[in-house]
Amino acid sequence: MKKLLLILIIFVLVASLPLFGIDRYYMRFFTYLFMWIALAGCWNISSGYTGYIDFGPVVYFGIGSYSTAILMTLLKIPFFISIFAGGIIALIISTFIGLPTLKLKGAYFAIATFAFAESMKQIILCFDRTFHVKFFMGSYGITLPICNNYNLFYYLMLLIAGIIVVITFFIEKTRFGLALKAINESEEASQMIGINTTLIKLSAYMISAFFISVVGGIYAYWVTYITPDDVFNVHKTVQMVIMSLIGGMGTLIGPILGATFLSSISEYLGAEFVENYLIIVGIIVVLVILIEPSGLYGLKKWKKYLKQTK
Amino acid sequence: MEKILEANKVVKNFGALRAVSEVDFHLLKGEILGLIGPNGAGKSTLLNIMAGIISPSSGKIFYKGKDVTGKKSYSLCKLGIVKTAQIVQPFTKLTLFENIYLAAIFGGKKNSKDATNIANELLEFSGLFSLKNNLANELSVPQRRRLEFARALATSPEVLLLDENMAGLTPKEIDDFLLLIKKINSKGISIIIVEHIMRAVKGVSHRIIVLNYGEKIADGEPDKVLENEEVQRAYFGV
Amino acid sequence: MKIFIQTLINGILIGGVYAAYSAGFSLIFGVMDVINLAHGELLMLGAFTAYWLFKISHIDPYLSIPIAGVLLFLLGYFIQRFLINRVIEKPAIMSYILTFGLHLIIANTAVKLWTHDFRSITTSYSGANFSILGITIPVTRFTTFILAFIIVGFLFYLLEKTDLGRAIRATAQNKKVAQLLGVDVKKIYALTFAIGAAITGIAGASISPFVILFPEMGLSYTIIAFCVVVLGGMGYIPGALIGGIILGVIQALTVTYINAGISVAITFILLFIMLIFKPTGITGKGNV
Question: Which of A157, A284, B37, B192 could form a disulfide with B211 if both were Cys (CB 3.0 to 4.6 A apart)?
C-alpha cells in the first residue's frame, strides 16, 4: 500500500511539471520515458511474471502505429478513435497468434513471436509492391497530420504508463497474478491444480498487445512520420525486454526502474554514440544475468544483507 | 455401488513402445483401489492418462458415466479428479498459503473467502499452519509432501490419484499416511493408489489391480490377487 | 526452363552456404540447449579475420580459414567456460539473454573499431564462374557449398566415431548419467561451444570473398541460422543441410518469380508456420 502511495505522489508531481513550465527538451525526454515505462510494463505483464519470453511485442506497436496512421490519413478518423481501433485490431490479431504460439515450449515461443514480428515488418514493406496497391506505402512510410501539442503527448503517455502500473498492481494482488507466478515455476503442476494455463497466458498476452498497440498509435501521431523499419524494429523489443530485466522482471516497479535507468543512460551518452550505449547495455545485461538476475529490484535484498552483516 | 471412474480398452503407445495395452478397469464410488505391478509395467502412465496429463492413443475414459476422454488435467481437476505428482512440485516462490489457496480457487472453483477458509483448514490439518506465510522452498521434504497433499485436497476432489507418495518414508510415516488415506476415504473420496510397498497397499485397499508389461493381469480382493500365480511370476519371476 | 534450373541451382548453392554457417548453431543447441544469439557475431569475426589478414598481409581468404577456426575456437571456449557455464543450470531464458548481451557488446565494439563501412574482398577469382550445361555456377559460392558438406561430414564423424563425440552425445542426452560415468560436463560444454564457434568462424572466413562485410552483419545471419535449423530440426546436424537447401531454394524461387522483398517475408512466415505445426523440423528429428 505504501508503494502505491509513493507512486501516486510521484505521478501527481510529474503530471504537474508542465504547469511549471519545463523546457521542451525535458518534455520530450519525459514523454519518451513514459512511453518506455508503459512498453516495458506491458512486456512485464505478458512475460515478466510467467518467465515465458515474448520476443515479438514490437509487432503490436507497429500494428498500432500503422492502424492509426492509415485510419487517420485514408479514412480521416479522429485520433482518439483511431488509437482505440488500433488497440482492438491488436487484440484480435493477438488472439489468433497467441493461441497457437502459447502452446509452444519456451525457446520456440520466443522464436515464433520474433518470426511473426519480422514477418509483419516484411509484409508491410513489400505488400504494396506485390499487390500493386497504394496502402501501406512500404519503405516510403506514412506521414500523419501534424500536431504540435506537446502537452497532449506528454499527458497521454503518462496516462498510459499510469494505467499499466495500476493494471500491474491489480495483477499482483489477485489470483491472476498468482496463477502467472505458478505457471512460471511449473506449467504442469499448475494444470494439475486446475489452472487453464493457455487461457491465463493468453489473457496476459492480449492485455499487453492492446496497450502496446495504443502506445504505438500515440507514437505515430507524435512523431508524425512512420516507416516499417522504425515501428517494427526489433530494437524496440530489445529495449522492452532489457528494461524489464534490468529493473526486475515480474515486479511492479521493475519496469519503471529499468526504463528510467536506461533512458537516463542513453540521454547522458547522447544520440551520436549509440554504439557506446549499446555496449554499455550489453555489459549491464551480462552482469545482471551473471550476478543479480532479479535486476535493480533484487538489489534491495543486498541492502538487507549488508545491514545484517554490520 | 456406482462406478465413478472407468477405463475402456485404454492404449498408450510411445512410438514403438506399447506402455499401456487394452486396459479395462473401474473405480467404485467410495473405494480405495490399489494399482500395483513391477517397474515399467505402465502404472504411472495409466494414472497420468486418468488424470488428463497425457492422452490415450485409443480407448475411452468415463467419469460419473460421462465420456471425458482426452480432457486435459485442468478440466478434469475442476470436475473432481486430481493427482499428486510423483516428484513433488510445490510453487517455491509462493507461500504455503498461496500454494493451497490457488488450488482451491482454480481447481476447487471456490470464491476468495471460501478458498481462504479451506486453505487455513488444510494447513491446520497438515500441521503446516505455523509456516503458512513461509515460502514453499523453505520446507523439508516430508513437509513438501504434506503440502502437495493439502494442495490436491484443496481442489475438492471426488477422485484422488496417488502416485507413489510413500517412497522413502519410514515405517511410522507410512502408517500415518495410511491412516490419512483412510480418513480422507471416509469422507467419501474415492482413491486410486499406486505403490510399491506391498504392506501399505494391502493394508488400505479394498481391491487391487495388477499391471504387467502394460496389461492388466489381475483384479480383485487383495489377498486373492497377491496369491495369484501370474502375479507372483510377474514380481518374482517364479 | 533454363531460368528455372538456374534458379534452382542458385537456391541449392546458397542453401549450402546457409548450412555451412548454421551447423555450429545447431550443434550448440542440440548439446547444450543454448540458443546462441551471438552466433552471427562469431560468423562476423571469422569473416573479418579473413578480411584483415587479406587487407594487411595479403593472405588469401581461403588460407585464413584455419586461422579463423583457431581464433574462434579459443573465443568460443572462453565465452562458454567463463560466462555461459554460469547460467547453464538455470532456466534457459537466462542463457539467451546472456548471449544477446554478448551480441550487443561484440557487434557494437566492432562498429567502434571498424566503423559502419561496408567492405568486401576482391581477389583474382572473385567474379569467376564456371558453366555446366549452360548453368552458371560462381566459384566462391560453390566452394562454400562443398565446405558445408565437409563441415557436416566432420561433425558427423566427430560425434559418431570419436570418444569425444560419444562423450558429447552422452552429455546431450542425459547430463546426470554422463556425470556419473565420469564425464567432465563443464569441459564437454566448453569444447562443444568452442567447436561450434570454430566451425562458424570457418564458415565466416569462407563467405568473406563473396558477401558484403560490415560489423552489424551478424544479426541477419543469426536469423537465417534460426530458420535453417528449425526447418531441418534443432540439434540435428544433417538437418542443417536439408533446412539450408530448402530455404535457399524457396528464397531463390520467390526472388526470381515474384520479388526480392517477398522472399524475406516468406522466410519468416515459413519459420513461424514450422514452429507452430512442426517444431521438430521437416525431418521430424529436432529436439523439442
Answer: B37
